[in-house]
What we know:
single chain, alpha/beta, Rossmann fold, 2 domains, eight-stranded mixed β-sheet, 11 helices, globular, Alpha/beta fold hydrolase
Amino acid sequence: MNQMIWVRGVNAALGRLVPQMLAGRLRERFMTPRSLPPRDWELPLLASAERITLRFGLSALRWGSGPTVLLMHGWEGRPTQFARLISGLVEAGYGVVALDAPAHGRSPGREANVVLFARALLEAASELPPLHAVIGHSMGGASALLATQMGLRTGALVSISAPSRILTMLRGFARFMGLPVRAREHFISQVERTAGIPAAHLDVQRYQLQLPGLIVHAEDDPLVPVGEAELIHRAWFDSQLLRLPAGGHQRLLGDPQVLQAVLALLGEVRQAPSRVLAS
């Protein structure tokens, strides 16, 4: 028997008998990232980085010098997954700082969520020079969008493979795990209590996005449908949308078209530096 079929069957039964207990277990699983080692192709960039620790314990890697670009990886991700982008940004004269998100890499914590990711961006921004741009992948992109609503100031923002609303992702996870209706409701409620924000509020349709941006997504993303990028684009007046025919959820980070589009956006902002202060 397929293992997931068995898991869903058990969850369906437990979800009817003890929905709150099962929801609590899955909330913990949902918010506890695994630690995944870097791939071989990431190691040269890792070796060339300067490791820094921010005031409240967040760990980050730094490369180059020049206008500061802050990067946030996705769930269970790593800074060096941005290797192609980082190398291109440094070659173009930018200084890059890439965070280990809370509960990831060398940053403290056991659990994390999109709100903690967003607060980490705000913490980093408070210690770094004025940000020329912020680039986030997947949950890192969602957290960067949220952080702008919490006071993050940056000249531009790039969202890659990000969802437009967190509630969709929570419901998708609950359905995938086979939770019956009552257990799903408890699961979402417990996630909201832990994060401190109603899931329905974590939706770009509710955001005021008043800065230039770029949205990147692959047509064949198996985790976050490309339609999410369209929703973000519609809600974000000053944004450009780059849809790639292929690239999955992570491979597109190394696509030369992505680097080209990012450098083009950052070049526009560099010619109008006052936008950093106005955003």
